[in-house]
Design a protein that fits this description.
This protein has 14 helices and no strands. With 356 residues, it is an all-alpha fold. The chain has one domain: ABC transporter involved in vitamin B12 uptake, BtuC.
Length: 356
């Protein structure tokens, strides 16, 4: 019996509605909207322009890294080193722009017993040199993690846990465990980069986050590379048998994740105006939480860029609301952990219903 055009359209509409209602990202977005409305009507401060500006700006640092983390999780991996990569890249940026690399507390070569004018940026490098150094550092860390995982078969948890310790240690060595708050001749440009609002009064970090989300979303949804990433997470052995270059793609994914940490480092350094060695401590947990709450499945094969944004936004709204509602800030971990458990429970229920 032939299927009519109306029946085909009806089936597509039913499929679209079913897909939307079964989407974890959709329900997290609904919770985010309802909770925001609750805070708007029950508090005087939540809906103010200042508070909304702070929320949208503050969530971006987690969201940027969560975009890269989502790609890693889609492949079935994990990256625990992003917080340390952030502080390492921030310190590389700060020390490079500070320019006093070869002397005093900022001498990279001092641990090796070497002294002397080993840099061409004495007195301070430009912001372009600093950003380049930070980006290259992030890519090198990501490549190191990816090669150990993809080519040597090391477990992602072990490799990135080791890099978590190594990255923060190198940041301490680079600065002699001191705070850097002077960024050479381009000091003001760096602060404007991270703390400004150049377009319609929207915080610069928000613009960077939306642009990066659009790029990663496009890559995951519309490119061959994105399809291969999902294929690896769905069934790595099958992906290998079909000719997908699994190892290079996994290395690339870890490089992207570290790169997003490096980008967040540059933006956050400009916003804070100073770098300390405790920057990004524990951030890997928030990033993973944002990705999982937003719909990424730790088993691999599932995740979206939009979900990473929604998850990061919900975490920031929860954090912001604790003070507004007079709740002790120590409860933050409980609420976020509860959100993770609910997200996993939702995924379990969805898989159980689909298997029936």
């Amino acid at each position: 019996m032939a299927i009519t055009l109306d029946q085909t359209i009806a089936q597509k509409q039913h499929s679209w509605h079913s897909s939307l209602l079964s989407s974890q990202t959709f329900w997290v977005l609904v919770v985010l909207i309802l909770y925001s409305l609750f805070l708007y009507f029950t508090t005087n401060a939540f809906g103010t322009s200042t508070n909304l500006f702070n929320i949208t700006r503050n969530f971006t640092f987690t969201a940027i890294i969560a975009l890269g983390m989502t790609m890693v999780i889609i492949t079935g991996g994990i990256d625990l080193s992003v917080g340390s990569v952030l502080v390492l890249c921030s310190m590389v940026l700060a020390v490079t722009m500070h320019g006093d690399v070869q002397f005093g507390p900022y001498n990279f070569l001092a641990p090796l017993g070497l002294e002397g004018p080993y840099t061409a940026c004495s007195g301070g490098c430009s912001i372009y040199t600093g950003i380049t150094a930070a980006v290259v550092t992030a890519l090198l860390v990501g490549a190191f993690n990816g090669i150990l995982i993809a080519y040597l078969g090391f477990p992602p948890f072990v490799v990135t846990l080791g890099m978590l310790s190594i990255g923060r240690s190198l940041a301490m060595i680079a600065s002699n465990n001191q705070t850097v708050f002077q960024f050479g001749p381009d000091h003001d440009r760096l602060l404007a980069l991270g703390g400004g609002a150049w377009l319609f009064g929207i915080s610069n970090p928000v613009i960077y986050t939306l642009v990066l989300a659009a790029i990663i979303g496009f890559v995951l949804r519309w490119t061959r590379f994105g399809r291969h990433v999902f294929a690896i997470g769905g069934n790595e052995q099958a992906a290998t048998l079909t000719g997908i270059p699994v190892r290079p793609i996994k290395v690339a994914v870890y490089m992207v994740c570290s790169l997003t940490a490096g980008i967040a480092a540059i933006v956050e350094t400009g916003w804070l105006g100073a770098v300390t060695t405790n920057l990004g401590a524990g951030m890997e947990l928030q990033v993973i939480a944002a990705a999982v709450i937003g719909g990424a499945n730790l088993a691999g094969g599932v995740g979206t860029a939009f979900g990473a944004l929604v998850g990061a936004a919900l975490i920031e709204v929860i954090r912001n609301s604790l003070g507004l509602l007079g709740i002790n800030a120590f409860w933050q971990g409980t609420f976020i952990g509860g959100a993770i458990l609910l997200a996993v429970l939702f995924d379990r229920i969805r898989n159980f219903r689909q298997s029936e």
